[in-house]
Amino acid sequence: MMKKVLVLSIILFFAGQTAWAQCAQIDSLLRVLALVQDNTQRINALNQVARLYLGEQEGRALFYAQQALQFAQAARYEKGVADALANIAQVHNHEKLNYQQAALEFDKALKIYQKLNLPNELAQTYEEIGEMYYNRFYAERANYQKALDNYLQAAKIRLANDQKKQLVDDYDIIGELYSHLGNDKMAMDYFSQAVDMRSKYQMGVANDSRLLAKAKRAYQMEMRSQRLNNYLLAAGILILILGGAILIIVLFFIRRRSNTLFKQKAAIEEQNKQLIAQKELIEEQKEIIEIEQRLTNSFNFMPKSVFEEIKEKGYAAPRQYDKVSILFADLEHFTNISKNFDTQQLLEELNTCFNQFDEIIAKHQLIKLKTLGDSYMCAGGLPAPNDTNPIDMVLAALEMVAFIKEKHAQKAQQGEPYWHLRVGINTGYVLAGVIGKNKIAYDVWGESVSLAKKMEDRSNSDQVTVSVNTYQYIKDFFSFAPRVEMYVKPDQYIEEYVVTGILPELSENNEGRTPNQAFKEKMHDLAIS
């Protein structure tokens, strides 16, 4: 009994840790799983591990969620079944882009939570379904109405259970959805409730104040537009009445002035048309300015062509690419070595490294996708496809490793520790598009991305490890360490290669570091072939 209490305490402790300790939390939960004898505890731990992997390593998340589902079904543990179904639905949503399957799994989870009368889990599931319909940028347009219906259900449950923090977050999103649907009055009402709650319960400052001000401006602009239309209509009617009266009087008394009156009437109608045209032009210009400002402030690492497409159409269509190279770079032992730096020094060192990486990939016509803590991700061959992106990517990777090695040597001379760099590269098919709600970013998906991350995980200190897919494109330009096979999934292995440098005959002074003229000519021939 004491052993079960101790194990349960360990699980609860790790479940409450913050996001920055996610990797340590997962490792600890996995160790705990080896000790747990109780089925309920094991199922809960498996679902926690699956939830932690969501958004980072969807394949592992699916693996642990399916294990939890099997154990829960065998044990007739209904809450564990519902938690596993919700996690599987999230994988279908994020990784597989299979919204129909995700909706089916979510619906099964909802029915179980309703049966068990679990309001918190029920509200969270409604919120996750709403988020799925809100964020469908890459496969189809977002379904704002379905997203709104689910968030309203979640808010109703949060309100009934006095869950203020979650309720105010739901009100923010409901306000945004009403704004997308063109109902500025309801958007203003929900943003106003969110602002009042944050003030009343001292929840701090949030984005809803700005959104409330924006909704009020939109609503006031709509009201002013309606009033202006009413004024114009009344003025038009009055003008027509006056014009008719004048016309009757003139025709009755002086028929000779009829031509003059007709000209006056025509001039008045032309003035009305000009007023309406000017009003429409002003509204259109305001909308264009607002869209450009929102795009400029919100988009991260956005290729110019994608940025222009969203400005022109209001969205960017997802695109498929057959030959894209993905690079993951990780600062090895970052957490332990960072303890030797104060906060300001740590930020300066990270900034130095990532700024240098930015310059290197820009030089090789690559694009930066994201940074996450001590990790760096970039891609080549999109949005404009090309045939040289695998070679460009490896050249950039060698320069990145050389830069970190130089920094490491400088710090060693000063008696200070410094990071090493691991790099993994894969080339293949990806789907690219934009994601996000308030902060939109350009990203890529597919098995090619997962394999690039596996290459980085398999890489050693100051090494560039590439998959066999990339090797086929670069083997005539670089030298390699002996081949290794890595396990990917049951009965499937894939070859990996470690790049040691440029082929001597294609490098300056045969040193294998800097491309010579023969290298450049060979690349040029490949680019135009």
Let me know the average pLDDT.
81
Number of domains: 3
Summing up helix and strand content along with how strands pair, one would put the structural category as: alpha+beta
The CATH superfamily of the largest domain is identified as Nucleotide cyclase, GGDEF domain
- Estimate what percentage of residues fall within beta strands: 5-15%
CATH class of the largest domain: Alpha Beta
Q: Which spans of ≥5 residues are poorly predicted at pLDDT below 50?
A: 1-20, 219-225
Instruction: Please compute the radius of gyration using only Cα atoms.
Output: 31 Å
| Number of discrete helical segments | 19
* CA-based shape: extended
Query: In which range does the helix fraction lie?
Result: 55-70%
CATH topology of the largest domain: Alpha-Beta Plaits
Give a quick account of the main beta sheet: strands, pairing sense, barrel closure.
9 strands, mixed
- CATH structural architecture of the largest domain: 2-Layer Sandwich
Separation of termini? 72 Å
